[in-house]
């Protein structure tokens, strides 16, 4: 991110932000309203900066959307905000045909990713028949089938039960692409290479989890112990 400025609904989220994210596993933390989700959207190319640029793997993602599809993928907090087709096969094939594959090649790739995740019978399965955890898995497969260099995770465990969280975490831990993981779950990023603490659109702290997470948790506990609620 170079000289990044971005406003949303009249609120200045980022102003002249510069940040390089080259580590394989990066966690991003911060209070609600600190800019985490907007950063995710900017990195994925789903929003365009008002000034400056966001470049991933040499691709300016907001301007070159076709190249961005195979460069960066995003997994949202709510799978129902991401899934747009009635069957699993259609959902998995959409991005592939957008990349220029014909329907037969897209179907083959979709079936390959289903087999990889031990779900070979899901191709024609209606999305509405899946649990929330299963829909999360469909979204993950839809991202992975595009073979991106980077995956952005925006609170991927929100609303999931413990068993599904563990299973999804195991899938994510085994991925080859780089991860940028936006979360309130500090435990889930304890083994990452780097953690960035965002505060009101600025980098409050940037370093290894062992330094950043305890400092963040201590401040949040301190704020939570105040009784005037003035900063909520």
UniProtKB/TrEMBL annotation:
SMART domains per record: AAA (SM00382)
Entry protein name: ATP-binding cassette domain-containing protein
A Pfam cross-reference name: ABC_tran
Domain ABC transporter stretches: 1-225
Entry keyword set: ATP-binding, Nucleotide-binding, Transport
Lineage, top ranks: Bacteria, Pseudomonadati, Pseudomonadota, Alphaproteobacteria, Rhodobacterales
GO cellular component terms attached to this protein's record: ATP-binding cassette (ABC) transporter complex
Keyword Transferase: no
Organism (species): Thalassovita mangrovi
A GO term, aspect molecular function: ATP binding
Family as reported in the entry's similarity comment: Belongs to the ABC transporter superfamily.
InterPro entries: AAA+_ATPase (IPR003593), ABC_transporter-like_ATP-bd (IPR003439), ABC_transpr_CbiO/EcfA_su (IPR015856), ECF_ABC_transporter_ATP-bd (IPR050095), P-loop_NTPase (IPR027417)
């Amino acid at each position: 991110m170079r000289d990044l400025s971005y406003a949303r609904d009249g609120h200045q989220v980022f102003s002249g932000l510069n940040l390089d994210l080259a580590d394989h596993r990066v966690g991003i933390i911060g209070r609600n309203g600190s800019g985490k989700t907007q950063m995710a959207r900017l990195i994925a190319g789903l929003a365009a900066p008002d000034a400056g640029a966001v470049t991933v793997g040499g691709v300016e993602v907001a301007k070159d959307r076709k190249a961005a599809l195979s460069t960066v993928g995003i997994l949202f907090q709510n799978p129902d905000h991401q899934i747009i087709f009635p069957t699993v096969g259609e959902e998995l094939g959409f991005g592939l045909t957008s990349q220029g594959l014909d329907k037969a090649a897209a179907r083959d790739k979709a079936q390959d990713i289903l087999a990889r995740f031990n779900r070979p019978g899901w191709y024609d399965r209606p999305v509405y028949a899946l649990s929330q955890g299963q829909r999360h898995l469909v979204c993950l497969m839809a991202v992975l089938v595009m073979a991106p260099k980077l995956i952005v995770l925006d609170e991927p465990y929100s609303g999931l039960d413990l068993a599904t969280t563990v299973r999804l975490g195991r899938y994510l831990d085994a991925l080859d692409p780089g991860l940028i993981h936006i979360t309130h779950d500090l435990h889930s990023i304890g083994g990452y290479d780097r953690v960035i603490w965002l505060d009101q659109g600025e980098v409050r702290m940037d370093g290894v989890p062992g330094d950043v997470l305890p400092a963040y948790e201590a401040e949040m506990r301190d704020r939570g112990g105040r009784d005037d609620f003035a900063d909520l």
